[in-house]
Design goal:
CATH topology of the largest domain: Rossmann fold
Distance between the termini: 29 Å
Helix content: 40-55%
Oligomer: single chain
CATH class of the largest domain: Alpha Beta
Radius of gyration: 30 Å
Shape: elongated
Number of helices: 14
CATH superfamily of the largest domain: P-loop containing nucleotide triphosphate hydrolases
Order of helices and strands: HHEHEHHEHEEEHHEHEHHEHEEHH
Structural class: alpha/beta
CATH architecture of the largest domain: 3-Layer(aba) Sandwich
Number of strands: 11
Strand order of the largest sheet: 2-3-6-1-7
């Protein structure tokens, strides 16, 4: 909705990871450097961890967009809550290895054959495991064993492991000593700074044709950072709502006050928010009137707070204004059509009594 109002070519704050919107913050640049270092080494594991919504999936998308398909065959798996026996099957599916069997030995043989074929074509094989914190220890050990495949001492298979911070505790387990020894580098992806948050928002807007309409005040960016703490997914969610609210208000500038209003509305919608109050049920009277209850509705009532009611009234007013504008545009549209009909009548000598002209006016 707001994209059309502000002349944007697409939604700049979609939650679905899209490498086209990749913004290289200091943390993301460092993480990418570690991944590229791993590619240069061509062996072992690279571990990248970060909190929920910090941009790990977008980082992978950017990495894949930069890979040379003539040198590297890459695949990604994200469904990691599997046991060790299913791990190899998921990997084969990720690389589109056609195997009509569930036998683990046959799956491993097929994967090894695939690795050798790629090596003969001068290609290396890379697997990126997202949400690695969900992988059981046995599955991680299975992945480590697959990294043993080599030809003449040259490794054929490499893995990058991306997960939430608790994955580091998993990797440190005493039963994964051999995996620990294969880790080439590890990096923890942090949230963005306040300055990077502002640049991030502007970057995503500019990617869809934003030309400072609506404009953002500096305190608006500060308010967004204060609420989101620089987490990309939270920034996207909040910014999306801010843009929608601004469009409904037909605003040309977004300031801290507008951000605060959107945050307040967002908080009131969360579970446990104080927007709606439900009083205690009203006790039934003990008279002879059949057990009726006092109060309205006979079963208690729902009270809406004054603040919430004001928000509802404001939203209704905004919608009414939008409908009024749409009605005005429809009227202008009808008048323009009638003018065209009049011009056509003058050009071709038609009259009001002509059946075709009458039908056009009725339409």
């Amino acid at each position: 909705m707001y994209e059309e109002f502000y002349g944007l070519t697409a939604n700049p704050f979609r939650l679905t990871p899209d490498s086209k919107f990749f913004y290289g913050s200091e943390g993301h640049r460092k993480a990418m450097s570690y991944l590229k270092y791993g590619l240069y080494q061509g062996e072992g594991f690279i571990v990248i961890t970060g909190g929920v919504g910090t941009g790990k999936s977008t980082l992978v998308g950017q990495l894949f967009s930069e890979l040379d398909g003539n040198d590297i065959v890459a695949a990604q798996i994200g469904n990691t809550q599997v046991d060790a026996d299913d791990c190899i099957r998921l990997i084969c599916n990720a690389f589109e290895i056609d195997v009509d069997t569930r036998d683990k030995g046959d799956l491993i043989s097929a994967f090894e054959e695939f690795l050798i074929e790629q090596n003969q074509m001068g290609k290396r094989v890379l697997l990126v495991v997202d949400e690695a914190q969900n992988m059981p220890l046995r599955a991680l050990e299975e992945l480590r064993m697959l990294s043993n495949f080599n030809v003449g001492g040259q490794p054929l298979f490499q893995s990058f492991l991306l997960g939430q911070p608790q994955f580091l505790q998993t990797v440190a387990h005493k039963d994964l000593t051999q995996l620990q020894q294969r880790i080439m580098a590890s990096y923890k992806l942090a949230s963005m700074s306040e300055e990077e948050t502002e640049e991030y928002i502007k970057h995503r807007l500019e990617m869809v044709g934003w030309q400072d309409y609506p404009s953002f005040s500096s305190d608006a960016f500060a308010a967004i950072f204060d609420k989101t703490k620089g987490v990309p997914r939270l920034i996207n969610t909040l910014s999306n709502r801010i843009m929608l609210f601004a469009a409904l208000e037909e605003a040309t500038k977004i300031d801290a006050g507008m951000v605060a209003t959107v945050i307040e509305d967002q908080q009131s919608e969360e579970v446990g928010g104080g927007g709606v109050e439900t009083p205690e049920p009203v006790a039934a009277s003990g008279g002879s009137g059949g057990g009726g209850s006092t109060g309205t509705g006979g079963g208690g009532s729902v009270k809406i707070s004054g603040d919430r009611l004001a928000k509802i009234e404001r939203a209704v007013t905004v919608i009414a204004k939008r409908l009024e504008k749409l009605e005005d545009r429809a009227t202008e549209h009808d008048e323009a059509i009638h003018e065209l009909i009049d011009l056509a009548m003058k050009a071709y000598g038609g009259t009001e009594e002509d059946e075709d002209v009458a039908q056009l006016r009725q339409a």
